[in-house]
Amino acid sequence: xxxxxxxxxxxxxxxxxxxxxxxxxxxxxxxxxxxxxxxxxxxxxxxxxxxxxxxxxxxxxxxxxxxxxxxxxxxxxxxxxxxxxxxxxxxxxxxxxxxxxxxxxxxxxxxxxxxxxxxxxxxxxxxxxxxxxxxxxxxxxxxxxxxxxxxxxxxxxxxxxxxxxxxxxxxxxxxxxxxxxxxxxxxxxxxxxxxxxxxxxxxxxxxxxxxxxxxxxxxxxxxxxxxxxxxxxxxxxxxxxxxxxxxxxxxxxxxxxxxxxxxxxxxxxxxxxxxxxxxxxxxxxxxxxxxxxxxxxxxxxxxxxxxxxxxxxxxxxxxxxxxxxxxxxxxxxxxxxxxxxxx
Length: 343
Hints:
343 residues, globular
């Protein structure tokens, strides 16, 4: 009993991601090291919203303490009130035996990957986040007796993806299922971690654009889901005809793209001809006015550098055509662009 108490105390001191290192049954690992045998659950929050990050979370529980996990009452976070979620979130971190892991993918990162030349689907981003969480748990010395994952797309295909990615690693069994957060308490725990983490991120969101001189941005953006009238009204109010949206918004979502097409200026990119005696070409920028701003009163102007820093300098490749870019049809001075809210 004394050694067990000592091990538990050591586990409680090993904090990670705001949680504690899981203890429990041990198995031989590589090189003779011992690994803690756990069940691991994975779920996400914020897959569908047009605002904010998508948060993936995992929760690890020693196999010997699964009964205690059940007693805590974890469930699908969507079925729980905010008060209950906060209480369970605190209980998880104070439990002394549950270990949370978090992967937060920002709106900017989601849009960048989904709009890149080599398109990355939301499912692929989700798969990679889940695999990253598993590998982080393994790196902490855990042996996963059973991995439970709430599915994204077809469960059988997702399970094969995980099996291929984790082949040869100490993951004994994988179960991917629909509504896993309601079926398996360990996935319910991950669901709570993901949901509370995302909610708190939105509640304390730091609009970096305001620190660079942009007008005040309201936090009354509702749930962040495209169908939410409050969210849609917020998007219509805080769209800028030149810069588009704040970094809180996922540009790749159809809701955002539709508003940009309707209320923002049209932009076209074209190659520029550099001088032959210089291998450094400054980027030239000008804007083609769309219906949203044509004929409107001149709004307040701010330097482009207030939003994006110094204007980029593009270097001409040694043996190819120049890569300089510009926006056609000049609008105002290069160092001053209008900033306004358009309804």
